Structure prediction request, 229 residues.
Amino acid sequence: KNQVEQSPQSLIILEGKNCTLQCNYTVSPFSNLRWYKQDTGRGPVSLTIMTFSENTKSNGRYTATLDADTKQSSLHITASQLSDSASYICVVRKITGTASKLTFGTGTRLQVTL
Amino acid sequence: DAGVIQSPRHEVTEMGQEVTLRCKPISGHNSLFWYRQTMMRGLELLIYFNNNVPIDDSGMPEDRFSAKMPNASFSTLKIQPSEPRDSAVYFCASRLLAGVRDEQFFGPGTRLTVL
Prediction:
């Protein structure tokens, strides 16, 4: 079982609508959680990073939340635009001693349509 | 800054051939990562280097895969011999080691097709 589970796998919404993507993780000990946006044919680009003490962070129309107790994060997109069509990947980092390890979710593929 | 540069962007080869993927990290970054991405498995870390030294290669699938970083501005990922199941997009990423918020910057990827 993947230690980072994302849902839904894919999503289609109309332009202008809001949507929320989910990320549940079991990675421990937790260091931080990052959301990436990956446009088709491009590499992932970081949207937000959240550490243990942060529970909400915004980046324009993107708002990420983190509940470290339940090990859940969400990415909320407000007033979606066609350019939001992409895959959104949740990545959780853990630190053990001096080493760190990233665990990637398989992503949610979002399509925004007219 | 030009960002992470990868070449080639696309590679089509026949099974059994040697494939070499190249990466130039962002100038000044001291950590470099190689990933493989497929629809089924998503992004998988293959290997990463800190200060040109391989730190963790546990993600390298087989001895057919090898990676080198001869200097701070260049890395290669080699597959020899290639197999159809190696078909994927291979990403290189770099970062500046600077604590828990250090961000990886990804290149555009190399789409590899092995026939």
Remarks:
- Chain A touches chain B at residues 31-32, 34, 41-46, 49, 51, 89, 93, 95, 99, 101-102, 104-107 (CB under 8 Å).
